[in-house]
Amino acid sequence: MRTRKQLTPLGAVGAGLAAGAIGTVCMDTVRFLRQRRAGGEHNALRWEFAPVRSWQEAPDPGQVGKRLAEAFTLRELPDSAAFPISTFMHWAYGVGNAAGYGVVSASLRKPHVLHGLPFGALVWLSGYVVLPIAGLYRPIWTYDTKTLGDDLTAHLAYGVGTSSAFWLLSRVSVFSRQL
What residue ranges are annotated as transmembrane (predicted)? Predict the structure, then answer.
């Protein structure tokens, strides 16, 4: 008789966090390969951790992190904080979203790797809802289809990478218990 493994609640969050890191690598790989095909940086690590010298150069995750940190500390952050905060926020967003995915997926009767597609699409869409409110994006209807399509496919890679990693990690005994 085979026993079934079930994720513990903490295991679902832990597996989700780990899966989110893998999903973020998948998304960044898609983006890196696109920029490389266009003649950009050939070194993946140098591209991933490209220095951000000022807040004017900081990507959207960094801008959100700056606003959160400054609202909390009531102090203006120096330009030297742009790189570490931008990098941290990018990874924290990918990993953090996947913790929620882990909880939802672990509660499904039959979780499936393809659930990563709607998950990735939902993460993509949430950016086009939240970031315009923050003044960091324009409304979604003002972007051309190529920009939206490139961004969506990168997020779909994130979703499928996350769901695939979660599926594998959910079978690891450190995250689950025998029933």
Answer: 81-104, 116-140, 152-169
Q: Is residue 158 part of a domain?
A: yes
In a domain, 164, yes or no: yes
Contact between 168 and 18 under an 8 Å Cβ cutoff? The reply is: no
In a domain, 155, yes or no: yes
pTM (predicted TM-score): 0.90
Tokens matching residue 127: 């950016």
Instruction: State the residue for tokens 């966090």.
Output: 17
On whether the CB atoms of residues 103 and 142 are closer than 8 A, the answer is no
- Is 179 a member of any domain? no
